[in-house]
Amino acid sequence: MQKGTTSYLRSHNEKMNFFDLIATRHSVRAYEDKKLQDDMVDKILSAANKAPSAKNLQSYRIFVVQKKEDKKKLVTATHDQDFIEDASIVLIFCADLISAKEAGVRGLELYCIQDATIACTYSQLAVHALGLSSVWVGSFDEEMVRRLFSIDRNFKPVSMLVVGFPDEEPEKRSRKSLNEISQRI
Ligand SMILES: Cc1cc2nc3c(=O)[nH]c(=O)nc-3n(C[C@H](O)[C@H](O)[C@H](O)COP(=O)(O)O)c2cc1C
Fold this sequence. Notes:
By secondary structure, the chain is an alpha+beta fold. The chain has helices at 18-24, 38-49, 68-77, 97-100, 104-129, 142-148, 178-181, and strands at 31-32, 60-65, 89-96, 133-137, 155-166. It has a domain at 46-169: NADH Oxidase (3-Layer(aba) Sandwich). Helix content is 38%, strand content 18%. Residues 26-27, 29, 81, 135-139, 173 line the site of flavin mononucleotide.
């Protein structure tokens, strides 16, 4: 990770094919303290809205955290992941347990978590396509997050997507080989 250079900044006009897009996305954990325009937020949310979901129920709800004081509270709720304070927005993806009931026990126990997760994934790729950066945050105190934003029991926080303008050259992390992650049967 390298700070103090802007060579990692990419314009969202720079078109990329899908495979280049997924190959060049890396988690960023240092952000410039800058606001994100509403139309950019809408584009990220629209990408989530295109994600597949069980029975097309879209059993998730996305809470968009924008205020500085709320992002500061999220630093505590995420066990001191302090880069969150400078990010432009944090999206909290929650499973919607009411809507999930329409798909029975499997809907409640599995599909709503998957729906929220896929929506988060689509958003993360959209963020990168827009020339912005992100990191998925899964390490947080669920109860604290609920309390902070008065999220009731009908919603289960599943993941967070921290989004903003990068202030570091991200680390390019290696992956397992295809043989390690798959088996042709
Ligand atoms: C389910 C999940 C939970 C994660 N939780 C955190 C987290 O709490 N904090 C963090 O900095 N990164 C978190 N990450 C990001 C991963 O560390 C990162 O995606 C992984 O190391 C691969 O790096 P890359 O995203 O740059 O390819 C999480 C990612 C996933 C998918």
